[in-house]
Amino acid sequence: MFWFRLRLLALVASRFLLAIDATSAANPNPVMQTTLSGLLRRGDLEHVVLADCTRSGKNYIQYSQLAYFAGPPTDTPDSITNATKDADKHLAWAGSGKITIVSSDGTPFSVTIPTVVAEGQFAGNGTNGYGDFSCYARFKKALYKTKDGAVCDGVYDCDHTTPPSTFSSTSPSPSTTPPPSETTAALSPTLTQTQTAPLASTTAIRNDRNDTETSSAQPTGSTATANDPPSTAPSPSSGMTLGEILGISISSGIAALAGIVAVLAWLFPKAPNASSPLTRTYRYSRPPPNQHIG
User: Fold this and answer.
1) End-to-end C-alpha distance for the chain, whole angstroms
2) What is the per-residue pLDDT across 9-36, written as a single tens digit (0 to 9) for each?
3) Residue 211: how many CB atoms within 10 A of its CB?
4) Nearest C-alpha neighbor of 133 from the set 45, 31, 30
5) pTM recorded for the entire structure
6) Distance from C-alpha of 155 to C-alpha of 137, rounded to nearest angstrom
């Protein structure tokens, strides 16, 4: 009987411990959700560059890419995604309405460049659903080189700086397609990481000049206008507050302690006291022979 009660006590204790573990698993710390890859916001110093790439020589080809940098742009982007669906064509970044490019991990980046602006000027807004970007016309010739030998020029640089309230348009920026001789002379070191070849499996969505979609709908970020600063909506997060988690944990602990005390009281009942009324012995005398009861 004792061993049966002991096993029952162990079963009750394990049930309470499982309940506490389930509470912790259902409310993970939101900070742990910042380790995702791709275009998710990693820090205030990150940049997204809208680039035009050209491969010269016998296999001449043109295409556009979206390059992500964890810090200031260098000749080695952290990740790249093709932005054009058609071969031998640069994407018209300015004047095409909202353009959405889906990265390899499924994160959409939407950018709107209303018109061509002067070098260094604010050009438009971008967003990936996790943070807003301000895009500037910052032409960087031969910013990086792809694995297949194409040279990519940075056309627009998007970061987390606060944009001005207005901007003025001007003449087009320098051509993003250098002559073959200049392209050959400006080759940058080959990227060390594995990158997707041009025309690989990518998903790109863009609007025509009349702002009509040309492909199936994909998740996009908010649409920003040229004269309005981007919204400062906080990044989405989930999970309960620290106070709620602590309250649930304390309540579960108290309930578990109460259950264990109750089971212990049942396992080891208090020995009855000799002076208790339950242990008293009552003696009854037999009536005399001639006396009748009742």
Assistant:
1) 47
2) 666 666 655 554 444 444 343 332 333 3
3) 10
4) 45
5) 0.46
6) 6
